[in-house]
Amino acid sequence: MSENSSIYAQSGVDTAAGDLAVELMKSAVQRTHGPEVLGGVGGFAGMFDASALTGYKRPLLASSTDGVGTKVALAQAIDKHDTIGQDLVAMVVDDIVVVGAKPLFMTDYIACGKVVPERIADIVRGIAEACEATGTALVGGETAEHPGLLGPDDYDVAGAATGVVEADRMLHPGLVQDGDVVIAMAASGLHSNGFSLVRHILTDKGIGYEQHSAELGATYGEALLTPTALYTAPLLRVLDDPATAGAIHSLSHVTGGGIAANLARVLPVGSWVEVDRASWSPLPVFRHLADLGGHTLESLEGAWNLGVGMFAVVAADKAPLVATALTAEGLDPWVVGTVSTAARDFTGFEQGAKGVDGGAVRLVGSYKN
């Protein structure tokens, strides 16, 4: 260690630990690199050869950025860090596929109170493995040590990705028509939203993350850290399949804001959908947490996905083909409703969200037991 590095370490920043973390994660990151990635790991900027885009007639770049939210508090509490990376990739890349775009590359950012090389490597390995599964090159990242601002075991993660879609193949609400069928795709669990409420419920009940839950068949920490499902690669294969090409008009990633609001964002103004609760049974984790907190499942539809990770709005005549294709890809689809443009009173409906003037959605009926 140089004298300058030693002086910096006295302030709480260990550059040697950072270098070790890079060495531990390097092989996982390199597995996401195809011939388009230039320069390898460790450069000031990640480089991606975009010459393949010259084959597009009108390439549209899609970008997304996100984090994992307070789910990282659970990972820190039980010292398990190898799943948070998949959560991060899913939150970012599965937003890109919503417009029909193929992800090209991603970068990540980890802020921590103290660089523990093995912990950082676990996080980044999770990111790299999820990038590999979604066909996304992890071209760069940053780990920043913030002693005094964050505690020694505290960290947060964020990421950004860029994808591309041919302009005439972009998915958007303008493609949605009266009579289109809405198909839900199963979530793996809570994914990465609503964890502030989860933590509040458990704290209020005095339940620790290492406590075993008979209802969940695992400790609370293990059950709640189930990683977010990855939809990108399977959906891109369905979108590219000649049998189903053009059948999907819009997609919705069910994240913050809940079920109705996220579906409303990808419907045209004036259209509406009544989502049939009886078409699925929320996963045990949602039922158990709702019971612990004294809440009804219906009251939680704006906080949790309740088992729906993604929606596809599909041409009615192709809906059976799309459902079959999604099943073959392991995405567990089912029909939840039909788009209508008939005039009606929208009282009780969610209309658009996050600044989008979209369609109207409400959930009706009772959940399947």
UniProtKB/TrEMBL annotation:
Ranges for domain PurM-like C-terminal: 177-341
Molecular function terms, GO-annotated: ATP binding; phosphoribosylamine-glycine ligase activity; phosphoribosylformylglycinamidine cyclo-ligase activity
Keywords: ATP-binding, Cytoplasm, Ligase, Nucleotide-binding, Purine biosynthesis
This enzyme's EC code(s): 6.3.3.1
Reactions catalysed: 2-formamido-N(1)-(5-O-phospho-beta-D-ribosyl)acetamidine + ATP = 5-amino-1-(5-phospho-beta-D-ribosyl)imidazole + ADP + phosphate + H(+)
The keyword Ligase belongs to this UniProt entry's keyword annotation: yes
GO biological process: 'de novo' IMP biosynthetic process; adenine biosynthetic process
Gene3D superfamilies: PurM-like C-terminal domain, PurM-like, N-terminal domain
Domain of life: Bacteria
Keyword Metal-binding listed: no
NCBIfam families: purM
Name under which the protein is recorded: Phosphoribosylformylglycinamidine cyclo-ligase
Organism: Leucobacter komagatae
